[in-house]
Design a protein that fits this description.
Elements lengths: L11 E4 L2 E5 L4 E5 L4 H16 L7 H12 L7 H21 L3 H4 L11 E6 L4 H9 L5 E6 L5
Parallel strand pairs: 4-5
Antiparallel strand pairs: 1-2, 2-3
Helix pairs in contact: 1-3, 2-3
């Protein structure tokens, strides 16, 4: 059965650390971290031709095709970060298309609250570190890692 959903549009871009898949009426935003130019090159040069013109709602099929195309590199590196950004962007598109939050598309909410944490990693404890620590709401768990100084 042919899908009536709009295909992924003609441009696939990454700005900063976010990958955008431009559909006819919707934009999906996906983000990744570390070496954004490498990830952007993989998205533009390798993955875009595999996605353009295809139904953006076939998310699992896209993930399997993209992973199969690069799995000989292993399951780490810029290729996987690019797949992650694309996957997030496709889920964002699906949520916007259906008018539902993504958690509904992924099986629904399973809790009313999510525990939050503030994590501070510091070489030395500074005034800025202390201000960030104090800025967290009282019900947040706090964890601090600091480099131990030698006597």
């Amino acid at each position: 059965m042919a899908s009536e959903e709009p295909p992924i549009g003609p441009s696939l871009t990454q700005q900063s650390l976010g990958a955008h898949l431009h559909g006819r009426r919707l934009d999906g935003l996906g983000e990744t971290y570390y070496l954004p130019r490498a990830v952007s090159a993989i998205i533009h040069d390798f993955y875009a031709p595999l996605l353009i013109g295809r139904n953006p709602l076939d998310i699992e099929n896209h993930w399997n095709n993209l992973f199969s195309a690069v799995s000989f590199f292993g399951s780490m590196g810029a290729e996987m970060r690019a797949i992650s950004a694309i996957d997030i962007a496709l889920w964002d598109l699906a949520g916007k298309h259906s008018g539902q939050p993504i958690y509904n598309l992924l099986g629904g909410r399973n809790r009313d609250r999510v525990p939050s944490i503030i994590l501070v990693w510091a070489m030395v404890i500074t005034q800025t570190t202390r201000l960030g620590w104090k800025a967290a709401p009282e019900n947040w768990r706090r964890i601090c890692f600091a480099k131990a100084s030698r006597p």
